Amino acid sequence: MTQEEKAIQEEKAIQEEKAITESEGRGDRSIPAIRLTDAEAGAAKFVGSDSRKFNYFEPQKRRASRYEDVTVDVQPDPDRYLLQGWILGWPNGDLGFDAKWTKMKSSDWHRFRDPNEEWEKTIYINNSNAIRQIKQSIEDAKSEDMFANWDKSWIDVVAKHVSAWSHVDHGLGMYVFMPAQRQAMSNMLNNAIAVNCMHKLRTAQDVLLYNMELGERFSEDEFDESVHKEVWMEDPSWQGVRENVERLIAAKDWAEVSFATNIIFEPLVGELFRGQFVMRFAPPHGDSLTGSVIGVSEREFKDRDLRWTKDLFTLMIEDETHGEANKELMQEWLAKWVPLSIAAAKGLEPIWSEPDVKVADFEESFERVKSRFEGILSELQLKVPEEVTA
After folding, report:
1. CA proximity to 241, closest of 159, 345, 334
2. DSSP letters along 329-363, please?
3. Contact 256/102 with Cβ under 8 angstroms?
4. What CA–CA distance (Å, rounded) separates 269 from 109?
5. How far apart are CA 190 and CA 56, in angstroms?
């Protein structure tokens, strides 16, 4: 490389290293002075920034639970932190979440805490445990050939009626609780209702998978795997239940359908069929398995789904501003939905006469669920409709 080439290369390097403030042949220029504002992430120190706990919400107890840490205010709204307004909307013009989606009123929708403290981790743990329990029960029954002792009349009942209950749970899960969980007014409500939704969808699958297992164990003459569809659509005993479920599906108020399903339909119809019929009638007919399968759903309702529902509506009744109006609204819902569920329950009466062994008559079974239903209303300080006591 010649001396001249070296000089040109060095000049080029110097030009590339010039500061942006130095003119490059276009005359004098000026730019704003560089000022450090401490706007970069981590530069400023905020109150509570060194805390190891979230402190932007008030926990229900002295210390926030893990459930609260991962659930509270995950979905904010314009009344809490979302100062610029909703950042999502829908084709029909609705923005985010709208309090008008229910007639129920609350001074603060974010006060609700799920007593079951359900969040993503617990959902998987609890449902996995339920599935393992059912699967293990079926495997134990198969290994011991427990189906050989089933009464023939009971085999027909399971094929027609127990399998038909899958349509109830599927309808409630997919078309009642799934829309309701999207419309509810806080993330804590969304979670509780979503878990309820998954309980119903899973139990519908549990019943149908059980139906398929039995179809493999018994001959086609003994067990008809598909008859439950005809029973659901045409059997007079089930038409009241089907009407009740379809009317719940057609209703649009998320709080109303949650109330009408878990406070009215499930105690009067669900517990009647699952607890008073299936779980009581199965053992005397040589069946120690079906009650275990359907009992998972029964326990989930009693221990979890009913629990969050009662807590929510107790909170609504105790609301300092809207409590009385909410209570009157619930009485209206009782007047609207109780007659439907009473009719649905009474429509199932003929099923009690189908098994050979008469464990209990329908009236005795129905009185038990009515008594429990009255107890639920008493806890909520609501009046029992006259249709229940008549």
Report:
1. 345
2. HHHHHHHHHHHHHHHHHHHTGGGGGSSSS--S-HH
3. yes
4. 30
5. 20
Q: What is the DSSP letter of 20?
A: T
Q: Collapse the DSSP code of 77 into the 3-class scheme (helix H, G, I; strand E, B; otherwise coil) and give the result.
A: strand
Tokens of 313: 């509506």
Using alpha carbons, select from 193, 204, 388, 195 the residue that is nearest to residue 296.
204
Cα 312 to the center of its chain, rounded Å = 13
What topology does CATH give the domain 109-383?
A: Ribonucleotide Reductase, subunit A (1.10.620)
SS3 80: strand
CB within 8 Å of 369: residues ≥ 6 apart: 267, 268, 271, 272, 275, 276, 345
**Which SS3 state, helix, strand or coil, does residue 81 take?**
strand
Joined together, the tokens standing for residue 32 give: 């704003």
Find all residues with CB under 8 Å of 248, minimum gap 6, and list them.
171, 172, 176, 257, 260, 261, 265
Please report the beta strands in 219-292, taking only residues with DSSP state E, as ranges in sequence order. none
Two structure tokens written together for 217: 């164990």
Q: What is residue 1's three-state secondary structure?
A: coil
Number of alpha helices (DSSP H) and beta strands (DSSP E) in the chain:
17, 0
pTM of the model: 0.84
The string of pLDDT tens digits covering residues 177-219 is: 999 999 999 889 999 999 999 999 999 999 999 999 999 999 9
Digit-coded pLDDT (tens) for 62-85: 788 888 888 888 877 888 777 778
User: CA 273, CA 306: separation in Å to the nearest integer?
Assistant: 17
Residue 57 tokens, joined: 């919400």
How many C-beta atoms surround the C-beta of residue 124 within 10 A? 9
CA-only gyration radius of the chain, Å = 31
- Do residues 89 and 167 touch, judged by C-beta distance below 8 A? no
